Amino acid sequence: MKLPRFFWLKLLTCFIILVAFQETVLAGTLEPENLESPGQAVSCSLHLKPSGYAQLLFTARNDETDTFWVRRARFSLDGRILKKLSFKVQADLTRSPALLDALAEVLLDEKFNLRAGQFLVPFSLESTTSVGRLMTVNRSRVVDLLTPGRDNNSTGRDLGLAAFGRISIFQYSLGLVNGAGINKKDDNSRKDFAGRLTASPGWGLRLGLSVYNGRRFDSTASANPVRNRFGLEVSWECRLFHLWAEYIEGRDDLTEKYGWYIQATFDLKPETYQLVLKLDHFDPDRSLPGPSSTVCTAGANWFLSPASKLQANFEYHRREAEPDYKVLLLHLQVGF
Fold this sequence. Notes:
The protein contains two helices and 16 strands. It is mainly β. It has a domain at 96-297 and 315-324: Porin. A 16-stranded antiparallel barrel has the order 1-2-3-4-5-6-7-8-9-10-11-12-13-14-15-16.
């Protein structure tokens, strides 16, 4: 019998996570100072950190009606229940269902930690960056349409279990997820593998590799065709200049897709005024000559506070098989 691709890698990841979790529980995740004598209640100091933001967007497109709309209204609560146990809950009041993040983390040490619940799938630099911290109003099309958790309209999230940590210059995150999307049970008997590894050798440079191996349920064919992704990333921070670039490719059943983006930002005044240029390309089918698209974005950011900003973006969308169009975006984010 031929085993599925990445079968042993998935099995090894699951084994490592379960063994580490068992050892953590048996060794006593709770520190001695957190345990009272028999018959007394367990005392702990609960540290809570609320945060949130709301985003108002004005969109003017040359072939559609101009409009204002509340794009997001998110509230997040982070907390530490015990010395080695933390949690995060995040909701978006503009979505249905509203729940985005609901996770717990067992913080063992710098090299190895555990995360369980609903969280961002470890894949891609831009996909795992909070939308409140993006330098452009919109994510790249290749990230929105191809990265796991976004290709199924799940805000980059899924349900599962992951191990993460830092070893020397390397950071990693490896996990098993349902693959069905946000707030959903698994729709097949397989668990999808997701992993991201980054290295920071110095000089403001960071390199990264992402892998996703999974299946999706096709109700029309009553089958589970492959849903695989692969990505490379690089970022460089040099004083006032910042560079991000990614290449992502994927396969859905027999269809091969790919795309890339490159983004450069320049700080006119650090933490206050910033200029942005971005170019991204996406091809939903390598075998066809027509459906690819390219988006050129020019913009400016004004940071009112660390969590509040005003953004202006001009996008030019060039499509091979359809007419080009232009979009003006004015974006106000107010956060705390």
